[in-house]
Every structure is written in structure tokens, then in C-alpha cells.
Amino acid sequence: MSWFVLVLSGVLEAVWATALGRSDGLTRPVPTATFVVALVLSMVGLGYAMRTLPVGTSYAVWVGIGATLTVVVAMATGTESFSVLKALLLTGLVGCIVGLKLVH
């Protein structure tokens, strides 16, 4: 259950990071509210997962999932350019995340 919550929290990290970018310095109400709610839920989930998973592994997986999804969303929406090199590097990052799960 902790791994499921951790992955969900990583997804929520991408949600709050994207919402923060769209909030225009926390001045737009809907992206700001999305940022706050997703941030709180993401942190609660990370804290829950850290009750049974190692702190370093939990944090690395959480950040890796959030960072990867944030870049993928940015590329999909056109706010960040796509390149094969970026795709390969993100694939490597996902591979490292999976590797951390496998060695736990």
C-alpha cells in the first residue's frame, strides 16, 4: 500500500508543480487552489509512505515521478520543447525509479 500511495503522491507532485507554473505567481485562483490542494495531498501521501519505506528511497521516487511527469506534461502541452535526448533521459530516470523499487 505504501508504494501505491507513494506513486500517487508523485503524480500529485506533477499536478502541483504544473499548477504552480500556471498560477502566474499565485494570482490566478483556480491554478492556485489546485496547487494548494495537490501540494497538501502530495505531502500527506509522501509522509504516509515514509512510515514504512526508507526516507531516501521514498523521496527519490517521489521526486523522480513528479519531475518526469511535469516535463512530459510540459512537452505534451507545448510549453516545453520535445527532443529525443530529453525522452531518452526521462526514460533513464524512470528506469532508475523502477530500479529503486526492485532493490527495496
Write the layout of secondary structure elements.
Blueprint: H1 2-22, H2 29-49, H3 55-77, H4 84-103
Helix pairs in contact: 1-2, 1-3, 3-4
Number of helices: 4
Shape: flat
* Beginning-to-end CA distance, first to last residue: 14 Å
The count of strands amounts to 0
Largest sheet: none
Order of helices and strands: HHHH
Structural class of the secondary structure composition?
mainly alpha
Radius of gyration: 14 Å
Strand content: under 5%
- Summarize model confidence as the mean pLDDT: 96
Oligomer: single chain
Q: What ranges have pLDDT less than 50 throughout 5 or more consecutive residues? A: none
Subcellular location: Cell membrane
Membrane topology: Multi-pass membrane protein
Keywords: Cell membrane, Membrane, Transmembrane, Transmembrane helix, Transport
Protein name: QacE family quaternary ammonium compound efflux SMR transporter
